[in-house]
């Protein structure tokens, strides 16, 4: 009877549910966007209760589409926006404030103080694999404890719980009985020792975070507990969890050392499997734990772009110059180039390899001849330029040549963008027939723990190539475009430095 896996894909702008069959086919899916809050410049928040309500509603909708019975569901797998920080009352289950989203830069000055202490900043990178930044959960937790009335006292009394979004969802799915996260999400908090696999006492003490606040940490493929009967009408194993980017790496079946994927979602994320060896970055990449089975830990190198698809959402929602994301392909192809326009979408700072939390969006090269299509094309090209920067850096860091890139995420459906990515990076871009690899990774992890699939080899039959984009741009044109992009980034950083003075 057990023939389906429920994958809950909780992203930065929407909650989604995809139900996969044992044959790895999509049976049904549903999604719903939720509210983004920007209370101050550079601040980003979500309502945790809206995250939960949208996630459970799309799960029920997907189940009802095919009238699936509870006893037909082998397991629930979860993949989530990472680093986003939620703190709630252990007794009531209610959040004590809005979630602080991974994009939020409110704690940048707190991180500046750490960077001034070279020894401690080095300790954080060596221990957690992360470069000290407001991106991660640690400073967000500290901010909440210091700024929400009564939070510090309640935390010290053991009355509060912290979680990234996976932990929040598992807590609610289990009726408030399971407080747990997986290794991938723990490795994104800037509190977790990625070699010893435990919360680091020195870092916790620095941020003033009580250990009682923190969840248990377990493998990505593991039965954490069971859903409360009130959720789906019966007990279903909650058997897999991984941060969205590690889930996508697993969903692309990047199981071997050197395998690489690039996701074009709200942000952009390039990950390379480095197997058992955590590669220490010298040039701005992150070392993180990859989705692993049981305690068989593997690692990945990661480059993070804060704004990718979110830039297209900005064109739609704030500027209102497009109706929807799919229309951008036709609009971009209606002109030969951007007419010299570059958009650096540093709306919430610059990620790898710059790590500048004070940078803000910048448009250069505007002339009277610039029109809507040029602007839209520049927004698409910005995703490819940022990814190209990471690809070049990852080759340098890993000392492994990259000939091709596996891609996924909503924007990977844009053929113009994929061709431009191939051209500007001089790499073959391979898009699978199913781009829902993030949700698929969560389903794979849960299904393996529940016995629906035997092993990782069993999963490779589920992945099939959809289309390969071959580089076709001549060298002179490519170099000219890259030079223009680098000048635009330099301008953005210069502006950020001026603003701080």
Describe the structure.
With 501 residues, the chain is α+β, with helices and mostly antiparallel strands. It is 37% helix and 22% strand. The chain has helices at residues 48-65, 108-115, 118-128, 137-147, 151-156, 165-173, 183-186, 201-207, 229-232, 244-251, 309-317, 327-333, 372-398, 415-425, 437-450, 456-460, 475-500; strands at residues 4-10, 14-21, 26-33, 45-46, 73-80, 86-89, 99-100, 160-163, 180-182, 192-193, 198-199, 216-218, 221-226, 237-243, 260-264, 268-275, 286-289, 299-305, 342-344, 362-364, 404-408, 428-432, 465-469. The strands form 7 sheets. The protein has a 7-stranded mixed β-sheet with strand order 17-18-16-15-21-22-23, sandwiched between helices. The longest helix has 27 residues, at 372-398. It is globular.
Task: Work out the number of β strands.
Answer: 23
In percent, how helical is the residue content? 25-40%
Shape, principal axes of CA atoms: globular
For the terminal residues, how far apart are their CA atoms? 65 Å
Q: Can you summarize the main beta sheet?
A: 7 strands, mixed
Kindly report the average pLDDT value: 92
Q: What's the Cα radius of gyration?
A: 22 Å
The low-confidence parts are none
Strand order of the largest sheet: 17-18-16-15-21-22-23
Total helical elements: 17
* Class per helix and strand makeup: alpha+beta
Strand proportion, as a percent range, falls in 15-25%
Please tag this protein with its features:
single chain, about 500 residues, alpha+beta, 7-stranded mixed sheet, 6-stranded mixed sheet, 17 helices, 23 strands, about 20% strand, globular
């Amino acid at each position: 009877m057990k023939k389906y896996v429920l994958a809950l894909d909780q992203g930065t702008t929407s909650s989604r549910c995809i139900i996969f069959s044992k044959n790895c086919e999509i049976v049904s899916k549903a999604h719903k966007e939720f509210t983004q809050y920007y209370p101050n410049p550079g601040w980003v928040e979500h309502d945790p209760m809206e995250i939960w309500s949208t996630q459970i509603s799309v799960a029920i909708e997907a189940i009802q589409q095919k009238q699936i019975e509870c006893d037909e569901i082998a397991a629930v797998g979860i993949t989530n926006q990472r680093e986003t920080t939620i703190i709630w009352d252990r007794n009531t289950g209610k959040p004590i404030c809005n979630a602080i989203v991974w994009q939020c830069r409110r704690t940048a000055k707190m991180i500046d103080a750490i960077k001034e202490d070279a020894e401690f900043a080095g300790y954080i990178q060596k221990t957690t694999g992360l470069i000290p930044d407001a991106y991660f959960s640690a400073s967000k937790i500290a901010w909440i404890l210091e700024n929400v009335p009564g939070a510090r006292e309640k935390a010290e009394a053991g009355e509060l719980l912290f979680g990234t979004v996976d932990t929040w969802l598992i807590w609610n799915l289990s009726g408030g009985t399971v407080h747990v996260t997986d290794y991938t999400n723990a490795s994104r908090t800037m509190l977790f020792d990625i070699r010893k696999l435990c919360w680091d006492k020195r870092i916790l003490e620095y941020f003033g975070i009580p250990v009682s606040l923190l969840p248990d940490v377990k493998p990505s493929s593991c039965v954490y507990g069971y859903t409360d009967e009130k959720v789906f009408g019966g007990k279903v194993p909650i058997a897999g969890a991984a941060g969205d980017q590690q889930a996508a790496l697993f969903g692309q079946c990047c199981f071997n050392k050197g395998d690489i994927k690039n996701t074009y979602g709200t942000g952009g994320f390039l990950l390379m499997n480095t197997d058992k060896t955590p590669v220490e970055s010298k040039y701005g990449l992150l070392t993180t734990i990859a989705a692993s089975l049981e305690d068989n830990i593997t690692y990945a190198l990661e480059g993070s772009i804060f704004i990718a698809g979110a830039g297209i959402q900005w064109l739609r929602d704030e500027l209102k110059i497009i109706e929807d994301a799919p229309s951008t392909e036709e609009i971009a192809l209606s002109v030969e180039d951007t007419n010299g326009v570059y958009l650096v979408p540093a709306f919430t700072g610059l990620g790898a390899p710059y790590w500048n939390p004070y940078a803000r969006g910048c448009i250069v090269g505007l002339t009277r001849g610039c029109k809507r299509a040029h602007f839209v094309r520049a927004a698409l090209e910005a995703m490819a330029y940022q990814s190209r920067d990471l690809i070049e850096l990852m080759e340098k860091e890993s000392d492994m040549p990259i000939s091709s890139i596996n891609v996924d995420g909503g924007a990977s459906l844009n053929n113009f963008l994929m061709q431009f990515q191939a051209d500007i990076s001089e790499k073959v871009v391979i898009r699978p027939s199913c781009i829902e690899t993030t949700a698929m990774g969560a389903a794979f992890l849960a299904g393996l723990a529940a016995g629906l699939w035997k092993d990782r080899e069993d999963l490779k039959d589920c992945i099939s190539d959809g289309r390969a984009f071959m580089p076709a741009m001549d060298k002179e044109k490519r170099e000219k475009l890259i030079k223009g992009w680098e000048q635009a980034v330099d301008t953005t950083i210069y502006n950020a430095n001026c603003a701080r003075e």
